[in-house]
Amino acid sequence: xxxxxxxxxxxxxFAIIMVVVVGSLLAFTASSLKPNIAxxxxxxxxxxxxxxxxxxxxxxxxxxxxxxxKEVAALFKTKVxxxxxLESKDxxxxxxxxxxxxxxxxxxxxxxxxxxxxxxxxxxxxxSRLLPLFVGQSKDGETQYVAPIRGKGLWDAIxxxxxxxxDMIVRGAFFDHAAETPGLGxxxxxxxxxxxxxxxxxxxxxxxxxxxxxxxxxxxxxxxxKTDYEVDALAGATITGDGVSAMIKADFKLxxxxxxxxxxxx
Amino acid sequence: MGLLSKKDAKLITDPLADxxxxxxxVLGICSALAITAELKASLVMAIxxxxxxxxxxxxxxxxxxxxxSKIRIIVQLIVVASLVIIVDQVLKAYAYELSKTLSVFVGLxxxxxxxxxxxxxxxxxxxxxxxxxxxxxxxxxxxxxxxxVGFFRxxxxxxxxxxxxxxxxxxxxxxxxxxxxxxxGFMLMPPMALIIVGLLIWVQRSRNKDLIED
Lengths: 266, 214
Description:
The complex is a heterodimer.
Chain A: H1 8-52, H2 72-79, E1 80-89, E2 92-97, H3 99-105, H4 116-124, E3 129-137, E4 143-152, E5 157-164, E6 170-177, H5 191-194, E7 213-215, E8 230-232, H6 238-265
Parallel strand pairs in A: 7-8
Antiparallel strand pairs in A: 1-2, 1-3, 3-4, 4-5, 5-6
Chain B: H1 6-13, H2 29-34, H3 39-62, H4 72-94, H5 96-102, H6 104-108, H7 113-121, H8 128-158, E1 160-161, E2 164-165, H9 190-207
Antiparallel strand pairs in B: 1-2
């Protein structure tokens, strides 16, 4: 005789009950832990921005240590003097908001919490895109501008925070990824890759935007030439590297009008 | 052993040594290579697997007579996947930096062959208590190896244990470093985990000749 558990009807009912039970269990866990996770991600964003500004607890060459979670709020307040929000449409900046103006218009939401992914989707849909720009002071007192960028790696999203000076010369970079291959693409968040961006120019002398290419067969592997618009690629991570080049190019280009304007004012 | 009968106790002690999931059954090698560069990551991975194995084995065992045999692999996968998602969410909420370190490897628990192997081979045919012991035993056996490998890789590779410098300061050249000792960066590479596991297998088999197959 066929066993009860072998029948098709039983199998289907079992599957349905299982899906409902497991689904509600997971939904409950996710929603009850959500505030904690959101708080952690908020702290991480502040740490990343500070890292790009050179405010970190790094010791030694390969070390990536953010400022501690206890200090981060205070440091973020003192080191990041302004959080600008640029409204960009069709490559032009149509409006510039200060942190206070943005917060007044958005129920007190801080500009650094702007979801870059969502803004990119807005731009794709033909709407205007909000570009956060964090103005801060580096260790040696130079004014730097940190922009969040986001793009695609091989498997999933990659993103970063890049600090530039008023001439759009890179002063610090931090990259992160959702699920790049450990040992290959995941190495974009290694010091030897991120530090290569230091001092690289984004603009030509004539002021044309060129971006920075993560290049294979780079003639300058020690990265002595800072105006070749190239950094040395990672072995075995071509697509992730191309993703880094692409996100720098696409996202930073939108900020260019702001820096051009900055030059005119000075 | 008051609480455990001799047979039950064997469920726990066997996987610790003579039937170790990593060194004897050679299961779960992928995670053993990937996350053992630091002792802390090894320990957390071991605890996460311990939780998933213990609970998973009991859940599967409790519903073993209800599971339709046609979709039993899918049911096992769903049980382990939901447990892993819960572990992942809890880590994200309470140990965020660690969850970043483990990143994709937490997800990899789902495909950890030890877990599916024990579900299929043991939990489907045994009661919850015995299944629990089997799960704990195998997870501890797995964890012990992970921690041993992590210990040597972090000590020799970075000169630290749990991130605390134990051999002196590599930059200031104090402690052991003053004698000219240097960290072996190669220990941090995944292949070195394989070599350490190989050495463990060698030590184990040289002590217990029964394990040697000819």
